[in-house]
Amino acid sequence: MTGCLVVPGFVDQHVHLIGGGGEGGFSTRTPEVMLSELTTAGITTVVGTLGTDSVTRHMESLLAKAKGLEEEGISTWIYTGAYDVPVPTITGSVRSDILLIDKVVGVGEVAMSDHRSSQPSKEDFAQLAAQARVGGMLSGKAGVLHIHLGDGKGKLDWVFDIITQTDLPITQFTPTHFNKNKELFMEGIRFAKAGGMLDITTSSSTISPGRIQPPEAVKMCIGAEVPLEKVTMSSDGNGSLPVFSKNGELTGLMAASPRSLYQAVRNIVEAGILPLEDAIKLVTINPAKSLKLPKKGMISKGYDADIVVLDKTLTIRHVFAKGRCMVKEQQAVVKGVFEK
Fold this sequence. Notes:
It holds the Pfam family Amidohydro_1. This protein has helices at 35-39, 59-72, 94-100, 122-139, 157-165, 182-193, 214-223, 260-270, 276-279, 285-290; strands at residues 5-8, 10-15, 43-48, 75-80, 104-112, 144-149, 173-176, 198-201, 231-234, 240-244, 250-255, 307-310, 316-321, 324-328, 331-332. The chain has 340 residues and is α/β, with parallel strands linked by helices.
């Protein structure tokens, strides 16, 4: 095959590896991620998270799933914690989890401005960020506080207060789901221009009103002169995409797709918003640098051989993870142990 394009393997910094959801009862719990769901979408590095449910889903299970996917061929990390505060941990503290468990790069996704959160205080968030920062410093990791943003009234106010009123730097916070609505996205632009990272969620539900699709979100960033290196995208893969009424009643539910990450990049390029060499940074080097993931995000000497081969139509043809061929001619040649 000739005329192909070679890009780094995608880094998806927000995936529900053991599933998520459950907002509509036990039958609405989303399934675990399978290896080929990630690799056929060009994802060679993934960061796993818990979400709303930290009762029937556990940190130990998330860690085991991440280790299993690593054994099957890709690179994995996780966040400790979930929506609720106090956050669930493995060792008993956020700082210890980050320091002592190799795969833990931060704490999250902790819910803010969302009716599903445990309604913590601003001080709770400051303390979590402080624990994560020290754990990161002691271990050489990013030590971020990864925040789930809901569409509540507070938006990102507490984060701006914390970075103003304490000595914590803005880089310790990595909020996600900014493109939930226009008002929240404008807060994301403000956050990025102050030095933070603006993360765009690529999975979206056709029944979610007001959500800004990734191409439009990136276009808005460019129009607002947000530095490209301050923008990332993540899929929210295998999380649930619930829709609630004004009274907080569930009116619809879908499961997020990891493949939406690749599709967002393709849509941005095909719409002429960014050339491929810039669009690809949103899902490779930008998240890798933000989370201090070693040897990830670039095709360069000393980096892992995580490679995606695209044809002229930007279709994924081949995928290599750490030098091993995982996808050949659009077909997964390496599958998870229990994949048919």
